[in-house]
Structures are given as C-alpha cells and as structure tokens.
Amino acid sequence: MVSQIDHIATAPHDPAPGPRPIRWRRGRVVTLAVAVGVVAAGVPTGIAYAGDIAHGVHVLGVDVGGRSTAEAARLLERRLAGRVTAPVQVRVGGSEVTFTAADAGLTLDARASARRAADTRPAPWTAVFGSRDVDPVVSLDLEKLTRILQPHVGTQGTAPVWPAIRFPGAAPGERPTGSALTPVTVAPRAGRGLNRHAAAERVREGWLRTARIDLPITDVTPVTTAADLDTLKTDLAEPAVAHPVTLTVDGRDVEITPAAIAASLTIESDADGRVVPRVDPAKLRTALAPVLATVQTAPTDATFTLHNGQPVAVPDAPGRAVDFDAAAKALLDVLGRPAPRRITAGTVPVPAARTAQTLRDLGIVELVSTFTTKMLPGQARNRNIKLVADLARGTVVPAGATFSLNKLTGDRTLAKGYLMAPVIENGKIKNAPGGGISQFATTAFNAGYYAGMVDVEHRPHSYHFDRYPAVIEATTIYPELDMAWRNDSPHAVLVDTQWTETSLTVSLFGTKRFDIETVYGPKTNVTSPPAITLAEADCNATDGIPGFRQEAWRVFEQNGVELKRERFAWTYRAEPKFTCAPR
C-alpha cells in the first residue's frame, strides 16, 4: 500500500496554489549558517578595532574609542583640563582642606592613559553594544601630600612615638668617658592619625572622580617594634662605639673615633616608623674634618697675574677629597664587628670654584683705569694702607656687583694687625686703629671713578689734604661710612694694588668702555684756618689748612665724543692750626 505522503511527494505536476517552496539539503544549511556567522562576527570586530583604541573604551567618562593613541591623549588633555586645574577638596576626619593638584604633585599622564586604553581589548559585541572604563594613569608626590594633610589631623589624632636609637654623648673629636656614648633607645608607641599610604591611594583614586575625598583617622603603628630596636642596639649600636675604626685613604690612615662614629651613625625611623640604620656621609665628613688635611688636598682657584702690564689667567688645579659616600657605606658594614676594624675609601676629584676658562669668560682683558696717591715714608698709617692694599689685591668684581671697602675689611682693629694712626674725630686729629685707610679709600674711589663705575657711597674729608684730589676723594668710618662703587659694565673687573714706601696705586682691569676726564670749577668761599690750643693727652699739632668750596664734573667720552657729565661738589672746612699745650 502506498502512503499518502509518498504519493504527494512523488506526484508529478502538483498544482500548488502559492510560490514554489525552496527545497533545502542538510549540508547546504550548515554551510550557510557558518558563512553568516563569520560575516556577522567580522562586522563588529572591524567596528570595534577601527583605531588604536577599541570602540566603547572610556577614561574618566571620556569616550576615546576608535581613536589613535595620540588623538586620545589630546582629547583627554582637552576634556579634563578643567578637572585637573580645579581645587582638590579633601576631608581629613572632620577637618576640611583644599589644595591644588600641583601642591601635592598630582598629575594626569594623558599619554600613558591613552596607551593603557589602547592595550584594552573588550569583546567585540561589548565594544559595539556596551562600554569599558579604563583607569587613568595618575601620580602624586607622597611627601608633598603628607606635608599638606598631616597638620589637619590636629587634635583628632595622637602622634605616635617613632622608634630610634640615639647617642647623647661626646661631640666629635672628644674622647668619650664613662657612659658618654651609651646608646639610648626610644621605644615605639602607636598613635592615631593618617595612614599616609592608604590616604595617598584614596587621593589618587578619588582625584578627577569625586567632588570631595574623605580620609579617615586610623591607627598608626610604627613598623619597627621594640624587639627590633633591642636587637639593633645589641647587634649594631653598642659594638659600633666600642672601638675606633681605621680608615685608609690612598695608603694613609685616619682614625674614626667612637665619638665620630656616634656623630655620623643615624638610627632613626622614616615617616612610616621603619628604622633603617645608615651612616650619614655629610656628618662623617664633619666629624673627621680636623684630621682630613693628611688625606685630602684642597682645589686651587684660577687667579690673575700681571705680565707686561696685562692680566693673564693662572690655571686652576683640582683637589682630591675622600669619597665619603663609599666610606659611609663601608663603615656601616663593619660597625657590628669586633676590633680591630679597618675600612678603605678612595678619593674623588674636587673641581676649583673658579677655573681659568671662567676667568677668560669674564672679559678681563686690558687696563681700564689706574690711580696713584703719595705717602710719606716711615709713618704708622702706611702699615694700615698696605694691609688693606694686600687684602684687595686680586679681587674680582663681577658685572653688576659692588666693591665695598667696609665689606672688604670689616672692622679695623689692633687684633687684625692695624696700627694706631691719625684720624679726624670731632674736628680734631686723634689716633685710632686703622688710621690712614682713607688714603686707600680715595685711591680706590678714583680708580672706579676713572673706570666709569657707578658711585654708590662716598664722602670727602672734612678738611682737604693736598695728597688727595679735591672733591673726588673719600674718607671711611667703619661701619657708618663706606666707600663703594658698582660695576655696571657687562664685564667683570679685576682689582690690582701696588705699594711702595712712598706711593699707593690701585688699578682696574677689564674691558674699557669710556675715556674719563675731570673738569674743575673754581674754588669759592675760601676760609682761613683758626688757631686753637689744645690741652689734651691725645693731641696732634697741625699747620692749619684753608677751607673752600669746589665743583668737579666727570666727563664720559667714547671715540672723542662726549656722552654725559656727572657733577660732584664739596665744601671743605678750614682745618684749625692746632697747638698742643704743655702738660
């Protein structure tokens, strides 16, 4: 019997009322399904990864998907600029604090954030129909943030006691006696305040995301315990100062005494209460300073010398100093050992502060001005003048700097080698330490005057002495009255001094700018000296000098053309003819 189904399937010329149905084979269905799946999968993949950064990736709410890394970085910088520069609001317990991101070293690295976004590969369908947030790259300065936040803990917390081991004994160089160098421990104690690392992480995460960052007051426990301290004391601190250590530098020995060890050994905690012993190189250098001359050489600065009247640079020479970084490390390594203890350290070069090239760059190439005044041989005042001249010789006055006589000499005292010599005191000629230095003041003033330097401070004498030019001369009283001029040229000047038993010369070398001459006006208001008899122990007789008023103009010229004039004027009193009465 033939079934109805078989009959229908095989019947020819079936008059179907609608469109003819498609007939599928099983293999064709599977093949087509795979093809459609591949095409369907490829479409979102191409969309998702069109640029360096996949679609659907966000940084702090900014959609950076489909962009190149460089484009994304620029977009982040532009879109987040307002948030980066806005004040940072933080609440420390119950205390509010506001600061700028720059104050705490908070920075957003837009380029690194864009690179991080580019490294993120969300699933293709997620990229098309969803989004993926990527954390920004943010950094901060832990120490700066701690300095900002810590004061706001205030009375909300209790400061912990940070652990330490200290030596309250003898100073470096002294021989310790008894218990002078016995180490003393400072036991740690927990407190309450800010956990600075946790606080920093909260600030880093909350910045650019929230309007205010809340930081709790929590327990703060020092990392190093009391047991740790006891071990450090037994194993390091006590044996460290039990014996000296011999330091050998280039074959020469220096003893590091227990006092020097104690002065340079630091057993203090860091900001987290962690004790890390170290030898401070700077403190070790200070402690050994009295004995370093045998193993170190000081550098020699370049100087000028005059050759055929021209300044010539004398080269500098570098020095050698103990490599205290290496010495400190080597010392720490042996402090826990028994005697004898020995370490070695090399030396490092120490450059001169002023090199020959530095001098050549100063523009000191020629004689700019020179001035000479006369002295009478055999007078005590001449010794004082020579002392100051020797002190001033070789002084380099940089461009823009001021040469000050009082700054050069300080107080002129007998202890410094100055002699008693005549000075003007309340109109009388008296003796005082450093008398006669006004002659150096006048000579140096004129050297600066004829070099075109700016007159900063000077005052002529009360009486006119013919060894000085009228008006353009100077006296000095320490510290009330100075002689000073400023080097307003673009080049430095070198001060050179020369003296004989009958003369003093001050010369300035640099780069010449002007030709200077002095034009005098006539003497007016001439007064005669009165005769006065003095009955005083410290009496100096004088012949008397007339008084007068006079003007002088400093004329600046270049290539024969007058540039300007400066007026100087002074009224001299008549010096009385003092006679000393018999006593």
TrEMBL record:
Keywords: Membrane, Transmembrane, Transmembrane helix. It comes from the Bacteria. Residues 225-342 form the YoaR-like putative peptidoglycan binding domain. Residues 1-21 are annotated as: Disordered. It holds the Pfam family PG_binding_4. InterPro entries: Glycopeptide_resist_protein, Vancomycin_resist_VanW, YoaR-like_PG-bd. The chain crosses the membrane at residues 29-50. The keyword Membrane applies. This is Vanomycin resistance protein VanB. It comes from Virgisporangium ochraceum. The lineage of its organism: Bacteria, Bacillati, Actinomycetota, Actinomycetes, Micromonosporales.
